[in-house]
Design a protein that fits this description.
332 residues; alpha/beta; seven-stranded mixed beta sheet; three-stranded mixed beta sheet; 13 helices; 10 strands; 51% helix; disordered C terminus
Amino acid sequence: MAFFSIIIPVYNRIDEVRDLLESLASQSDKDFETILVEDGSTERCEAVALEYATTANAKYFYKENEGRSIARNYGMERAQGDYFLFFDSDCVIPPQYIATLKSRLVEHPTDCFGGPDAAHDSFSTVQKAINYSMTSFLTTGGIRGGKVQLEKFVPRTFNMGFRREVWEKVGGFREMFSEDIDMSTRIRKAGFSISLIREAFVYHKRRVNLRLFCRQVYVFGMSRITLKLLYPDSLKAVHMLPAAFVLGVVVMTVLALTLSWWWIMPLAAYLVAIFICSLATTKSLTISVLSILTGIIQLGGYGCGFLKAFFIKILLRRGRNIDEEIAIRKGK
């Protein structure tokens, strides 16, 4: 029996799956099995999986499209490892990852864990700028960066794992947006321990263009309200900062146009701070300039999604409840 069962949902990601499997084949510790669950893709990666059947202990399964959460649950039902480990199909895993994670779990056991992500040198400048925005304290308040935290650590499925016993008690993922936050919350409420393992990081390619990135963070903002309906005490002040950013920009812009341009200075100072911090981190002028744009997209997209969902679901009390949403996404 393997120590880890690595479970990866796949949907039309042949090239990215190859990069991921190649990185798993290069691990210094091979005490794992790799379970790829093809979730109804029109471009199947079965041939690629077979290439790594030995070097990455890859096992391929195909099922009809039902969503990434259902695909992960399908993989867990067929997993044999002591720990279930989840990556997104657009991740690349450093060669010492499995050895580092295994050593940490042996020395400091924990029920559920997660690690941060980083940008690989081979990533495009847009991907690196998006990665900076998704990990910087200035744009996330520390929620996703794996460093300073303004709330309890919440593992994300691009780099997340838990004991088999957790699944047996808590159950699988629900097919919904921010399903990893929902899963982590259920794990914590069930009394299991959750740990951040900073040294167990992955390279995460994220969205490859700004339009997809904007759509992604917009959905994140909307799903935060869904999570509040599920767990009333889960909404923290840090989650409302993007909405405050959007409202603040609107107010500052109106005041600047009607009274004095000085009203826009707080926004300008904030964007300059993003540029300076990005430059200090990435050492790239191009990425730092792009970080201003990706920071605006992240905060603006998330904030707009949050405000829309808050207005519809909280103020107007319209829309489906969470059980109805889950049933509809499952096609019931």
